């Protein structure tokens, strides 16, 4: 019996969620969704979890690409998705369902968690985590049904996906930058390099905001939505974000 959790996290909310579910499920294998990651970690798994945030009313393009490359056993595993969102989710879980369907796979359960400031400390949030874990333990079906409003919101996502990669042009660094390279290590899509000791973005951005939010010197700013305000999950440390390079 093998259980693998794949996760994509920028601010730490999704990682916090994955860790909490993992703790309740006897600590399955944790595997980041990032460039160069092993898509075969769950090849022999009978249970696979996909944890991802919503960005611009949908699932990040890189996560959908990762799902397309996902390797699974010959027998259909129990696949579930946990989607975190700070605002309007659209029909994000439905995107995962459709992407898996293209591979002949079924999404058995999906869950949506909305984050507010410090919400992961609340009793209600913990109850929702307990519920997710119990459904997964029992391998129950739990498909969501997107509303018409959700579907309409997600219609904007394909347009956003064309714009998002070059939105990193709106990032900049200031005199506080020490050239530590933390932003490079954090970027899940290898979209940053150092040029003369300073970050340069390479126009393949996912707007996950990891570089902006976790910079130790607060040296990165921007005029894009990803740089709207600094926020990291208070229960996640930088070392945890860097745990799986």
Could you please describe the fold and organization of this structure?
The protein is an alpha/beta fold and about 240 residues long. The protein has helices at about 15-25, 60-70, 90-100, 125-135, 150-155, 155-165, 180-185, 210-215, 240, and strands at about 5, 30, 45-55, 80-85, 110-115, 170-175, 190-195, 200, 220. The strands form three sheets. It has a five-stranded parallel beta sheet, sandwiched between helices. A two-stranded antiparallel sheet has the order 6-9. β1 (about 5), α1 and β2 (about 30) form a beta-alpha-beta unit. α1 packs across α4. The chain is globular, with a radius of gyration of 18 Å. The model has no long low-confidence stretch (mean pLDDT about 90).
Write the layout of secondary structure elements.
Elements: E1 3-7, H1 13-24, E2 29-32, E3 47-53, H2 61-69, E4 78-85, H3 92-102, E5 109-114, H4 123-137, H5 148-154, H6 157-163, E6 171-173, H7 182-186, E7 192-195, E8 198-201, H8 210-214, E9 220-222, H9 238-241
Parallel strand pairs: 1-2, 1-3, 3-4, 4-5
Antiparallel strand pairs: 6-9, 7-8
């Amino acid at each position: 019996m093998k259980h693998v959790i794949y996760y994509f996290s920028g601010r730490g909310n999704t990682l916090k969620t994955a860790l909490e579910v993992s703790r309740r499920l006897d600590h399955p294998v944790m595997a980041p969704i990032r460039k160069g990651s092993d898509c075969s970690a769950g090849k022999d798994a009978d249970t696979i979890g996909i944890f991802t945030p919503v960005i611009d009313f949908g699932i990040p393009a890189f996560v959908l690409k990762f799902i397309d490359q996902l390797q699974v056993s010959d027998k259909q595993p129990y696949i579930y998705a946990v989607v975190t969102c700070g605002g309007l989710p659209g029909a994000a879980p439905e995107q995962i369902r459709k992407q898996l369907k293209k591979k002949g796979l079924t999404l058995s359960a999906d869950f949506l968690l909305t984050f507010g400031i410090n919400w992961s400390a609340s009793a209600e949030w913990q109850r929702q985590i307990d519920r997710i874990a119990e459904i997964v333990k029992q391998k129950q079906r739990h498909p969501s049904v997107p509303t018409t409003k959700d579907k309409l919101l997600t219609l904007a996502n394909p347009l956003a996906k064309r714009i998002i990669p070059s939105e990193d042009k709106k990032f900049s660094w200031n005199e506080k930058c020490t050239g530590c390279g933390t932003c490079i290590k954090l970027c899940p899509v290898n979209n940053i390099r150092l040029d003369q000791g300073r970050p340069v973005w390479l126009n393949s951005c996912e707007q996950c905001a990891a570089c902006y939010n976790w910079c130790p010197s607060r040296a990165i700013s921007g005029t894009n939505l990803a740089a709207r305000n600094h926020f990291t999950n208070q229960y996640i440390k930088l070392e945890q974000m860097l745990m799986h390079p």
